[in-house]
Known about the structure:
The protein has about 400 residues and is of the alpha+beta class. The chain has two domains: about 10-50 and about 155-220 and about 325-385, FAD/NAD(P)-binding domain, CATH 3.50.50; about 85-145 and about 220-320, D-Amino Acid Oxidase, Chain A, domain 2 (2-Layer Sandwich), CATH 3.30.9. It has helices spanning about 20-30, 65-75, 95-110, 125-130, 150-160, 205-215, 290-300, 305, 350-365, 380-385, and strands at about 10-15, 35-40, 55, 90-95, 120, 140-145, 150, 165-170, 175-180, 185-190, 190-200, 220-230, 240-245, 250-255, 270, 310, 315-320, 330, 340. Strands 4, 5, 6, 12, 13, 14, 15, 16 and 17 form a nine-stranded mixed beta sheet that branches. Strand 13 and strand 14 form a beta hairpin. Helix 1 packs parallel to helix 5, helix 1 crosses helix 9 (about 350-365) and helix 2 crosses helix 9 (about 350-365). The longest helix is centred in the N-terminal third of the chain and has 16 residues, at about 95-110. The two termini are about 40 Å apart. The model has no long low-confidence stretch (mean pLDDT about 95).
Amino acid sequence: MVLTESMKAEIVIIGAGVVGASIAYHLSERGAENVLILEREAQQGFGSTGKATGGVRAQFETEINIKMSLYSLDFLANCGFDCGYEPRGYLFFATDEKQFEYLKRNVEFQKSLGVKDVEVVDTKTIKEICPILNCEDIVGGSFGKHDGFVNPLAIMRGFTERAKGAKIQFETKVLSIETEKGKVKAVETNKGRIECEKVVLATGAWAKILAKTAGIDLPVEPQKRQIVWAKAEKELPANLPMVIDIGSGFHFRPARDFTSNEPASADEILFAYPDVDEKSSFDTNFDESFIEKVYARAKHRSPYLYETKVIREKCRAGLYENTPDHHAILGGCSVEGLYFANGFSGHGVMHSPATGKALSEIILDGEAKFLDVSCLSFERFAKGELLHETAFI
């Protein structure tokens, strides 16, 4: 389809992944009817949404991340469509007292903000929660009962199907954002020009490129994150949660194929860690050398994991969209009508409900009223008001 010269929309959302879909849904809930989502692929879920691990948690360090999670977890537990929410929990563990004190402080802060059923746990409890861990050097940890797993693709589809005021145009790549006198005027695509009053960038790791066409230097950088998918000789322990080494970021969880309706295998597992040697790039090819690196970390931490067999065809790589402070950028900028929902640094899926709600209110009301997200504004970087979060993986 070639777009006609007269093609117009009030609000254009660039990117039909889980974040763009959530924004479209929440705008529709508010009565917006002229919303157009532009997706460069032939279908949804080919970007970072389809590569996500599918974890959700309220165990964060900063108030804004905790509150974004609380809203999102409540939404996902009561959304009325099957999003695959499975409250297995998140188990963070520490291998020295400094790390343990950090987790203890976080738990108290999380509780003060309304997080329920999060607790400090000792080594004995950690072993009970996760019997396959080597706990010899673990001094303690934290466990959040309502954290757990979701299906990112199911959430994306749920939002999309319920965004009654929005339409999606596939195989439409936005080339630039046209402005005039400091205001959004149109977007130029591979299929023609679309006049619009407002543009929302929900393009993940690729947002910086389009923002630049509107004269905005968006501090979002792509970084490859890889996941090893493996098969164990014995079934996984029942109700295994997400397990994370707060010191190294090494983590694992039961494997789930989000594209299949088949029951999850009881003997397959995902594990990964944030490779500090990984440079910023748009490369999404899985690197075989990562297998040796991650197994080297598994060897000490869990002989069970170390003895698993890699299923190479299921290993994958996706992109994080990192900001300098590893927090999202939500809201407008100096170009009137241009809005950002970017830089989630690995938390895009879990915070997508709150993000959609926030952006819909910012676009329609001028500010987010359900939650003050002003600390996530684009302007914080120029003001030097960066946030601090250690618990990102």
